[in-house]
């Protein structure tokens, strides 16, 4: 029977079972075993009506002393994922034992019950193959073993010499097993394809999230200096406006590179870009990780510094001025020996003031610093 199935389908069906989530597989097997146990016990009511007292005792022994202990053993092993091979063997054995017990009981039942027992045994084999949630290889072995033993019982009639009867049931059993295995294989292939689709979908979603995150960073980042751009600052202002929590005020610095247009006119835009990059590096090195640096304009930068009072804010601004002048970047437009400097306007925090208002105050302070001669801090 197994030669009828293509090798690639075997592999895909096996992969579907091997890649099955352990908890979902355990749950399906547990439900199948519980159903098997209930059907096995419920069938005792049929045995009472169908069998004479002597054969009823045989049925009780098979159901209660053989099938039930095997099912309970499989259920107990089902709670131990580490023993999955042993659990698979126990469950397959329980299914085969259930099918054979029904077949054996049917040999001693009068008609029409005998035929119904034979059909019920075939249904057990079919259901065990299709919905037992066993790995594909174990399912094939279980089905072949059950079919072979079923054939032996129905042909021999459990008599010696064998009765050599019920040959029609042998053909029906073979057809049932082939159909069950094909259906099970098709289901496993479909599960494998569905799992592959889900993995691809999850991968595409992850790539899309990463692309959106990268796009979001690009949309709020200044490509030249690597700090945030004006759009990011506008988003901060919008978030603060939408917040229901009263603002405690923000400490803000506005920084302007002194005589930067003159620098570009004499040194060129490439030198101007390099100058801005060096200044931003020096500024960020002298700030905290929580401070936000924004390129506000061409050579103008805003810095939001949460939690600083006026003295700490002024000290930080002075430190930034010294850090930039210490770079000793020659200013080609100011003559020999002159270097690039910055002017800084500060806006200490004011409770209930918005970030937009703090930026406006810092911008006014910056203009005062520039009017006072540049390369200085003004409040």
Protein traits:
Alpha-Beta Plaits, 379 residues, GGDEF_dom, EC 2.7.7.65, alpha+beta, 5 strands, disordered N terminus
List the helices and strands and how they pair.
Blueprint lengths: L6 H12 L3 H21 L1 H7 L2 H26 L5 H23 L6 H19 L4 H21 L10 H53 L10 H13 L9 E6 L2 H8 L1 H17 L6 E4 L4 E5 L5 H16 L16 E6 L7 H17 L5 E2 L1
Parallel strand pairs: 4-5
Antiparallel strand pairs: 1-3, 1-4, 2-3
Characterization of this structure:
Strand 4 (342-347), helix 13 (355-371) and strand 5 form a beta-alpha-beta unit. The chain is α+β, with helices and mostly antiparallel strands. The protein has helices at 7-18, 22-42, 44-50, 53-78, 84-106, 113-131, 136-156, 167-219, 230-242, 260-267, 269-285, 310-325, 355-371; strands at residues 252-257, 292-295, 300-304, 342-347, 377-378. The chain has two domains: 2-202, no CATH class; 230-378, Reverse transcriptase/Diguanylate cyclase domain (Alpha-Beta Plaits, 2-Layer Sandwich). 67% of the residues lie in helices and 6% in strands. The protein starts with 6 loop residues before the first helix and ends with a strand. Its EC number is 2.7.7.65. Residues 1-24 are annotated as: Disordered. Residues 248-379 form the GGDEF domain. Residues 8-23 have a biased composition (Basic and acidic residues).
């Amino acid at each position: 029977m197994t030669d009828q199935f293509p090798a690639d389908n075997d592999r895909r069906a096996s992969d579907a079972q091997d890649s099955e989530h352990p908890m979902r597989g355990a749950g399906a097997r547990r439900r199948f075993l519980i159903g098997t146990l209930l059907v096995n016990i419920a069938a005792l009511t049929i045995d009472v009506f169908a069998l004479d007292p002597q054969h009823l005792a045989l049925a009780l022994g098979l159901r209660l002393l053989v099938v039930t202990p095997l099912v309970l053993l499989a259920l107990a092993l089902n709670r131990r994922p580490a023993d999955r091979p042993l659990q698979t063997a126990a469950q397959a054995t329980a299914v085969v034992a259930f099918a054979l017990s029904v077949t054996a009981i049917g040999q001693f039942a009068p008609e029409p019950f005998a035929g119904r027992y034979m059909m019920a045994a075939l249904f057990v084999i079919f259901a065990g193959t299709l919905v037992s949630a066993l790995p594909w290889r174990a399912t094939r072995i279980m089905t072949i073993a059950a079919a072979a033993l079923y054939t032996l019982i129905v042909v021999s009639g459990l008599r010696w010499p064998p009765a050599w009867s019920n040959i029609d049931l042998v053909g029906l059993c073979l057809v049932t097993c082939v159909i069950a295995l094909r259906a099970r294989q098709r289901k496993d292939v479909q599960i494998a394809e569905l799992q592959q689709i889900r993995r691809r979908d999850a991968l595409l979603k992850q790539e899309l999230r990463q692309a959106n995150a990268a796009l979001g960073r690009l949309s709020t980042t200044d490509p030249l200096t690597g700090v945030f751009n004006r759009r990011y600052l506008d988003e901060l202002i919008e978030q603060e406006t939408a917040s229901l929590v009263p603002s405690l005020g923000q400490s803000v610095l506005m920084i302007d590179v002194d005589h930067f247009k003159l620098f570009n006119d004499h040194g060129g835009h490439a030198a101007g870009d390099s100058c801005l990059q060096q200044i931003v590096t020096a500024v960020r090195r002298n700030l905290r990780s929580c401070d936000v640096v924004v390129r506000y304009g061409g050579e103008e930068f805003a810095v939001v510094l949460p939690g600083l009072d006026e003295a700490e804010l002024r000290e930080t601004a002075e430190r930034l001025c010294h850090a930039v002048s210490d770079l000793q970047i020659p200013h080609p437009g100011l003559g020999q020996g002159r270097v690039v400097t910055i002017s800084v306007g500060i806006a200490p925090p004011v409770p209930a003031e918005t970030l937009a208002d703090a930026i406006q105050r810092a911008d006014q302070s910056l203009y005062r610093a520039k009017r006072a001669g540049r390369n200085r801090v003004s409040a």
